[in-house]
Design brief:
single chain; alpha/beta; Diaminopimelate Epimerase, Chain A, domain 1; TIM Barrel; 3 domains; 6-stranded mixed sheet; 31 strands; 26% helix; 22% strand; globular; binds zinc ion
């Protein structure tokens, strides 16, 4: 066994180790490695203590998590005892003074004839970044040349000269060669698991296809590929292609796949296309009333469902499909790992999952990723409010799911709720009626998943427990009702946000600041660009002007965040940054304000602005290296920016 450190090491009596040591049991051939977390300052390091797989068939690795908040001291040396086949791996960090040493303890490969230990703990050497164009987002010191990281946290930001004085024998020195560095992107609205889970479906339809009959051949090809269910799943079409087809959508789908239930989600995720088998399994027929927040489109002639279910009506079917079976959860997990790679490749280090379907146990995938040391972003899960659930039962369930420990990367501390639907389906809630009617949408003013009163009920029940709300509101009525519900609350400490904000009544602009509600918007999608505003005029007239009033809200003092809504829109934040500057008249004034909307402002919304969001001493080194300085180039080139490296708490999680 190689001793990697000697100084500062104080060997304790064996008995004092007991809580923190890895134990190998030769009788069961199991190695148990406790994950011990001592205090909040070292949380991120604790998560670096990830268990790695041991690839010997004689040997099974079992994880054990213990918390030890009161261990007074520790030391850090892994020891292998050939006689007992035991590896002792203390992975305890207690106080900052010796943290540096503790993370220098990298376990070397311990090899015997019986097992091979690949790795136990990421090394946490000190790192010095030199010669950078480091944009800190800290107004006191916007730019710096050098940044020194110790134990995942920033210890110095400033000049090359001063930073060099901190170098010690274990410091890794990285020359940035003039590259731009900025804080990691924080994306407060995305759907990574739905985007990447293989279970979400093998039938990917073309959003631009105008003839629904052409989907038949595609569906017949992809249907046999579906895993883990008798259902056929997929996504991608435009609902208008179905509504404009000569035959009923259900007839087309029944012809394509008569013998298996099918559910295909439209590209916006606000309606599904189902066949007769699917409706039969879900028990939906001509007598089924519209559920709260949804519409079962029915034929005016026969009253029979046509195979299109808008908004929450789609959940009536999806709840039969996306079950939390072990097989499906495994696919979800694999999807999440895939998603994390993409997330890091775009420089994103913090995310909010904007619809954590807890009935499908989406949260299990995130928790497992963290437990297995594979979670490479901070994650705040936004637990979905099901509109057709009983309020008391749902509130009680959510109360039980709450998790907001400072020592976890994953938090279940936000609620995602829909106030309304979407404009193009005429389901967004409007103050004044739509100018034209679509399908069977019953109200001229759109629909509510949650009314103002019911939203207020949930806010009052859950916000005092620590849940912040993330409210989807697209129409001006949906936005206004969301703000009204928040305004009525007795509890004032919430950090709620309203997302999408496509049509906002002018009278509501200043209310975001007054109520401390974050205004979350997505501008990366083509539909959000002013060139496309007029496409909504047939539906809502001049209310289509200033769709997504980014500038108006910013000027009214709202805290603005910009998010992706991946995979409804692109994950690439640099496209959003460019669009935020170029979408006059509703643009942000400068790149600095755009970057704030991707860093410090979302950090506030995720309650981690004291740990992340800017590059300042004491914060975690969540940061990215870019291939160009986005302040030096034509703003129309910002979208070309590529992320070269992504660091989470000083650990490299992506490199191009
Ligand atoms: Zn979304």
């Amino acid at each position: 066994m190689i001793r990697l450190l000697l100084s500062f090491c104080l060997f304790l009596p064996f008995s004092l180790w007991a809580e923190n040591e890895a134990q190998y049991s030769s009788s069961t051939q199991q190695l148990i490695i406790p994950k011990v977390v001592i205090h909040n300052d070292v949380t991120q390091q604790a998560y670096k203590v990830a268990m790695q797989e041991l690839d010997n068939k004689d040997f099974q690795l079992v994880s054990a998590e213990k918390s030890a908040t009161d261990i007074a001291s520790k030391f850090n040396e892994a020891t292998y005892y050939p006689s007992s086949l035991e590896v002792q791996i203390p992975n305890v960090v207690v106080d900052e003074k010796i943290t540096e040493q503790s993370y220098a303890v990298a376990m070397k490969q311990g090899e015997t004839g019986f097992f091979k230990l690949l790795s136990v703990q990421a090394s946490q050497r000190d790192t010095l970044f030199l010669n950078g164009k480091i944009y800190t987002v800290n107004p006191q010191q916007l730019w710096a040349e050098a940044l020194y990281i110790n134990n995942g946290k920033i210890r110095y930001v400033g000049s090359n000269e001063a930073a060099r004085k901190l170098v010690n024998a274990k410091t890794e020195v990285i020359d940035l060669n003039g590259a731009m560095v900025m804080p990691g992107i924080q994306d407060v609205h995305m759907h990574p698991l739905e985007a990447e889970s293989p279970f979400a479906g093998t039938c990917l339809l073309d959003n631009q296809e105008e003839d629904a009959e052409n989907f038949i051949a595609v569906l017949q090809d992809c249907a046999p590929l579906q895993e883990a269910t008798e259902w056929v799943l997929g996504s991608g079409h435009s609902v208008f292609t179905l509504l404009e087809s000569e035959r009923l959508p259900i007839e087309i789908l029944d012809e394509a796949i008569p013998d298996r239930p099918v559910v295909i989600m439209e590209s916006t995720s606000h309606s599904v296309w189902v066949n007769s088998k699917a409706l039969a399994i879900a028990g939906i027929d001509k007598n089924t009333p519209n559920p709260t927040g949804g519409v079962i489109v029915k034929s005016p002639q026969t009253g029979e469902p046509t195979g299109v279910l808008f908004d929450a009506a789609g959940d009536l079917v999806m709840d039969y499909v996306w079950l939390p079976t072990e097989e499906i959860k495994e696919l979800n997990y694999l999807g999440l790992l895939q998603a994390l790679k993409k997330i890091n490749s775009y420089g994103i280090t913090s995310v909010a999952e904007a619809r954590t379907y807890w009935k499908r146990d989406f949260q299990a995938a995130w928790k497992r990723a963290e437990k297995e040391g594979k979670l490479t972003a901070r994650a705040v899960l936004n637990l979905w409010l099901y509109p057709h659930e009983n309020d008391e039962v749902q509130i009680e369930t959510l109360r039980g799911l709450y998790q907001n420990s400072a020592t976890n990367l994953v938090k279940l501390s936000q609620i995602k709720v829909y106030s309304d639907g979407i404009l193009v389906n005429t389901t967004a809630a409007m103050l004044a009626p739509y100018l034209s009617v679509l399908g069977d949408i019953p109200s001229q003013n759109g629909l509510n998943y949650f009314t103002e009163a019911r939203l207020a009920k949930y806010l009052n029940a859950l916000a005092p427990l620590g849940f912040d709300f993330h409210i989807h509101a697209i129409g001006d009525r949906g936005v206004q009702e969301s703000l009204n519900a928040i305004e009525q609350m007795v509890y004032k400490e919430g950090r709620h946000r309203v997302t999408h904000l496509e049509v906002v009544n002018k009278v509501d602009y200043p209310r975001f600041k007054q109520l401390n509600v974050t205004a979350d918007m997505q501008v990366a999608g083509a539909f959000a660009h002013p060139d496309h505003w007029e496409e909504n005029e047939a539906l809502i007239g001049e209310r289509a002007d200033n769709l997504i009033p980014l500038k108006s809200l910013y000027e009214a003092g709202a805290r603005v965040t910009l998010s992706s809504d991946w995979d409804v829109s692109t994950l690439n934040p640099f496209i959003g940054m460019q669009n935020a500057l170029t979408r006059a008249p509703q643009n942000l004034p400068d790149l600095a304000s755009v970057i704030e909307a991707y860093t410090v402002n979302p950090a506030y919304a995720l309650r981690q602005e004291k740990m992340t969001g800017s590059l300042e001493v004491g914060k975690f080194a969540d940061m990215i290296v870019l291939d160009q300085n986005i302040f030096d180039i034509d703003i129309n080139k910002i979208s070309d920016t590529r992320v070269m490296k992504t660091y989470l708490a000083g650990k490299l999680v992506f490199e191009r």
